[in-house]
């Protein structure tokens, strides 16, 4: 479903009560399949509404009922109105809905562009400015989307911004540091990645977050193995296994054991002197 904004407090400029009533009745008519009557009420609500709320509700209803071709221009117009009226929350809602429509249509380029516009609008909103933890979480989520699309430089940029905006709790900072480390590793920057993952591990220890401590050790072990630092990698996998054992996480214990055996096997192969054969 799309993001409706008329019947909830999504942004601070609420539509007049008459507009809200018209939209709510129009939505009920849509639920009964009476689109002709619903359109009449939606158009009346849009005419009476000084905000983009009614038009957004109309666009969302159209999209939810499969009328995406008609929904797109409604949401685009609402977006333009929201820009003109300097209503960033409404801009964000428009862009999120447009992003969802284009994602359903398998147009990942436009979907991503609108998601970025939505994020920019949220950063402009008062709620974003007033709530640092919310803004940090939004940046982390956006970074995850970029990372999924292999836009790793962009993801790293957002994660570093999230780190600046995050609160000072070890757990919050550790989560971001770990993601930065993984992203750097995917970029091939192993040395930098190790530093960030070690920092994440230290912060997770301070927060007594044992599952994440074990996860950090596994990631550190893989990076050390890639650098042929086998003894250190083996120790990381063994420590991770010990933590998983304390947590009674049998699957984690087995995975850590397998990684440790793999390190020992590779170390044995690389240290074998074939010239003696």
CATH topology of one domain: Serine Threonine Protein Phosphatase 5, Tetratricopeptide repeat
- Helix-strand string: HHHHHHHHHHHHHH
The CATH superfamily of one domain is known as Tetratricopeptide repeat domain
Quick check: average pLDDT?
84
- C-alpha geometry: elongated
How much of the residues is beta strand, in percent?
under 5%
Reading off the top of the CATH hierarchy, the class of one domain is best stated as Mainly Alpha
CA(first)-CA(last) distance: 68 Å
What percent of residues adopt helix (DSSP H or I)? over 70%
Count of discrete alpha- or pi-helical segments spanning 4 or more residues: 14
Q: Which class do the helix and strand fractions yield?
A: mainly alpha
Total number of β-strand segments?
0
**CA-based gyration radius:** 26 Å
Q: Please give the CATH architecture of one domain.
A: Alpha Horseshoe
Largest sheet: none
Low-confidence stretches: 1-15
Pick out its properties:
277 residues; mainly alpha; Serine Threonine Protein Phosphatase 5, Tetratricopeptide repeat; 79% helix; elongated; disordered N terminus
Q: Could you explain how this protein is built, in words?
A:
With 277 residues, this protein is mostly helical. It has a domain of 124 residues: Serine Threonine Protein Phosphatase 5, Tetratricopeptide repeat. Helix content is 79%, strand content 0%. The protein contains 14 helices and no strands. α2 runs antiparallel to α3, α3 runs antiparallel to α4 and α9 runs antiparallel to α10. It is elongated and about 80 Å long.
């Amino acid at each position: 479903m799309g993001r409706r904004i008329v019947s909830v407090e999504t942004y601070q400029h609420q539509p007049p009560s008459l507009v809200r009533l018209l939209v709510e009745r129009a939505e009920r008519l849509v639920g009964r399949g009476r689109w002709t009557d619903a359109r009449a009420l939606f158009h009346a609500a849009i005419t009476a509404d000084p905000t983009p709320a009614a038009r957004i509700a109309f666009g969302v209803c159209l999209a939810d009922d499969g009328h995406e071709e008609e929904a797109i221009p409604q949401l685009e117009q609402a977006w333009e109105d929201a820009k003109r009226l300097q209503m960033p929350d409404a801009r964000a809602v428009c862009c999120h809905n447009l992003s969802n429509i284009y994602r359903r249509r398998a147009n990942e380029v436009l979907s991503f562009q609108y998601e970025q516009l939505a994020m920019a609008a949220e950063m402009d909103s008062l709620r974003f400015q007033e709530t640092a933890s919310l803004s940090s979480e939004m940046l982390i989520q956006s970074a995850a989307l970029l990372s999924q699309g292999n836009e790793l430089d962009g993801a790293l940029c957002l994660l570093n911004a999230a780190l600046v905006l995050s609160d000072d709790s070890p757990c919050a900072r550790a989560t971001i540091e770990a993601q930065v480390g993984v992203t750097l590793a995917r970029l091939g920057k192993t040395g930098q990645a190790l530093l960030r993952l070690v920092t994440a591990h230290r912060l997770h220890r301070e927060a007594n977050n044992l599952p994440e401590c074990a996860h950090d050790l596994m990631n550190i072990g893989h990076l050390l193995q890639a650098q042929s630092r086998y003894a250190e990698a083996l120790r990381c996998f063994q420590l991770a296994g010990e933590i998983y054992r304390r947590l009674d996480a049998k699957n984690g214990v087995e995975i850590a054991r397998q990684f440790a055996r793999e390190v020992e096997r590779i170390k044995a192969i690389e240290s074998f002197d074939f010239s003696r054969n």
